[in-house]
Amino acid sequence: MTPLPAAWLKGAFFAVLFSALLGLHLGASAQAASVTFPLPADGDRSRYGFEFALLQAALNASRSGNAQADQLHWSALPMTQGRARAEVAAERLSVVHSFATPELERQLNAVPFAIDKGLNSLRILLTRRSLLPKLAQAHSADDLRELRFGVLGSWSDRQLLQGLGFKVESTESFSGLFKMLSLERSDVIMTGLLHLQQVNLLLGEASDLEWEPRLLISVPSQQRFYTARTPAGKALAERLLRGLRRLQQSGEFDRLHASHFGEQVNVGNGRRMIQLLDKEAAAVTPAQP
Predict the structure, then answer these.
(1) Higher local confidence (pLDDT), 282 or 55
(2) I want to staple 150 with a disulfide (CB 3.0 to 4.6 A). Which of 75, 111, 186, 248 is the partner?
(3) What DSSP state is assigned to residue 119?
(4) CB 8: neighbour CB atoms within 10 A?
(5) With the C-alpha atoms ordered 226, 231, 236, 239, is the resulting torsion angle positive or negative?
(6) Is the pLDDT confidence value at 230 over 60?
């Protein structure tokens, strides 16, 4: 047998090596990404059901042709929104949803898409039955300044209300929030239209609490997804934005939103609008995706 030329053997070796490296690269690119999302502090996954479903849909819509389906997981432990934001910043979680604030825009990488369609800018008030006559007379933000607003400590509303000079009482749990209101340690809880059903489920048998029927409080804001301010976090944010825009173009975003919130969006119809702050003073002006 005639020996093969050394140059041919060398070329064949590098061809095989290149093919192997290319195969490894393509295999890695086709691997599924693992994305983690925070489990609510009370462990009730349904509270973030829309956001979880929207994340999965955006990942699917932005997946390249040769890639496997991404693995979206809840965090192993439940946590408050404040802790979830810190976990994302430390890269121990992939993504969190939150109301946009200047501080959060500096700390994390925002996905510039209003996942709540701006509807959480519109709030109604949960209060004690005894305060309904007083609230019926309110026509401006100044008429609300005597009230004590109950908030969770991790809510962006806490800083917003305090910055505007409103009285704020904070706690770390929903049960504590309702208890403060019942025990007259706070006067109202401001709730976005899209969260009414969740709050009603949490209220249980609090028979002394009612939704104020006449007022609609406007607080310019929007909910967004946030990732870490790292190359990986930026890449995930860019991918989510591509997916969300594709869902919007196909109409799937509107269908998914309607399937989770339905008639809740109509609760504000016919109410008297009170602007809590004008758009120029808003922390973040809602932007259209």
Answers:
(1) 55
(2) 186
(3) G
(4) 9
(5) positive
(6) yes
Residue 23 has pLDDT above 50, yes or no: no
Say if residues 200 and 87 touch (Cβ distance below 8 Å).
no
Whose tokens are 């996954």? That residue is 45
pLDDT-above-70 percentage for the chain: 84
Cβ atoms of residues 99 and 151 within 8 Å: no
3-state secondary structure of 98: strand
**Other Cβ atoms closer than 10 A to 169:** 15
- DSSP secondary structure code for residue 69 in this structure: P
Average pLDDT over residues 187-212: 85
**Residue whose token pair is 């500096």:** 106
Phi first, then psi: what are they for 141, rounded to 5°?
A: -60, -35
Q: Which amino acid is at 74?
A: W
Amino acid at 256: L
Closest by alpha carbon to 156, among 103, 105, 218, 99?
A: 99
- Span 61-73, average pLDDT: 83
Which of 289, 153, 141, 122 shows the shortest CA–CA distance to 216? 122
**Which domains occur in the chain, in start order?**
32-118+222-263 (3.40.190.10), 119-218 (3.40.190.10)
Alpha carbon distance 170, 152 (integer Å):
5
Distance CA 224, CA 113 (A): 6
Average pLDDT in the 134-148 region? 96
As a dihedral over the C-alpha atoms of residue 249, residue 251, residue 257, residue 258, rounded to 10 degrees, the angle is: 150
- Cβ contacts of residue 162 below 8 Å, gap of 6+? 168
Contact 127, 188 (CB under 8 A): yes
172 and 83 in contact (C-beta within 8 Å)?
A: no
pLDDT digits (tens, 9 = 90+) for 96-116: 999 888 889 999 999 999 999
pLDDT digits (tens, 9 = 90+) for 253-279: 999 999 988 777 788 889 999 998 754
